Amino acid sequence: MKTILITGASSGIGAAIALLYAHKGFMVFAGGRSQERLADLAVQHENITTFSCDLTSKESIENLSLNIPALDILLLNAGSCEYINDALNFDGDLFARVMTNNLIATGYCLDAWLKLVKPNGQLAITSSCASFLPLPRAEAYGASKAALTYLAKTLAIDLKPHKIDVSVINPGFVQTSLTDKNTFKMPCIITADQAAQYIFKGLSRKSSEINFPKRFTYTLKLLSILPSSLWKYLASKMEKGA
Ligand SMILES: NC(=O)c1ccc[n+]([C@@H]2O[C@H](COP(=O)([O-])OP(=O)(O)OC[C@H]3O[C@@H](n4cnc5c(N)ncnc54)[C@H](OP(=O)(O)O)[C@@H]3O)[C@@H](O)[C@H]2O)c1
To answer: Which of 56, 69, 73, 96 is the one with CA 20 to 30 A from 118?
Structure first.
């Protein structure tokens, strides 16, 4: 039986991926913080073992009493989003919170679990297409995701001799509790189940970048090659129209 460990699996994209892999016959270790949501997930498939842990605490990860066997896939997907609504009165605590939750916690997960990935196994990190170009109010979220992309791409080089493939996952908008808070228009939004299908397909192919939905991510990639002054102009127009 193949094994996958997924963080951020108590809701949204992670929960949908956990269920999909369980249905595909994988043994799934699914992490989150909410014990209630994890219990709801565990009852949906016998292949799913859940664990509750705040990944910003290295000690809590180390104290987990989990009997994790060698992993075929380690998918670090947990994350959160908060916006900087007033750039001039920059909220350093918010910035630290987002960077800790999205970036530093990923480092703790790598510390704990990367060594469990088998040769010919896979590491995947959920970044975001927000990492492609600077988006309004995304000083914290976008910076954390750009750093995760860099981290994943660097690991792809350094893990090659260990025969571990690395994928960076860049979703566009996906309907989850993370985006439920957004009050602006979210073009090309898809469901968490659709996102899980894209991720499954991408990981099965061992793609180094898993970008979806294509019509949205191609548009952002194109915009990202514009001269920065032109993008700054367009982004400020976009912000005013939001
Ligand atoms: N939705 C989108 O449009 C979108 C787009 C691009 C990228 N992403 C990325 O996709 C990933 C999943 O997001 P989602 O949309 O599925 O959001 P979500 O439904 O809010 O799920 C976030 C998951 O991460 C877990 N989590 C967050 N902080 C954690 C922590 N400190 N310790 C342990 N678990 C933690 C949450 O656990 P609890 O709820 O149990 O606390 C939950 O399981 C995130 O990395 C997000 O940045 C999402």
So the answer is: 56
Q: Pick from 178, 183, 182, 181: which is nearest to 195 by CA? A: 178
Report field, pTM of the whole predicted structure over 0.90: yes
Distance 230 CA to ligand 1 centre (A): 32
Q: Is 80 in the pocket of ligand 1 (CB under 6 A)?
A: yes
pLDDT per residue as tens digits for the range 53-101: 999 999 999 999 888 989 999 999 999 999 999 999 999 999 999 999 9
- Report d(CA 156, CA 164) in Å as an integer: 8
d(C-alpha 140, C-alpha 152), whole Å: 18
Ligand 1 pocket member 173 (CB < 6 A):
yes
Ordered structural domains, the chain, with CATH: 3-241 (3.40.50.720)
Atom index in ligand 1 nearest the CA of residue 56 equals: 31
Question: Is 233 among the residues known to form the active site?
Answer: no
- Residue among 6, 13, 57, 66 to mutate when testing ligand 1 (max atoms within 8 A of CB): 13
Nearest atom, ligand 1, residue 173 CA: 3
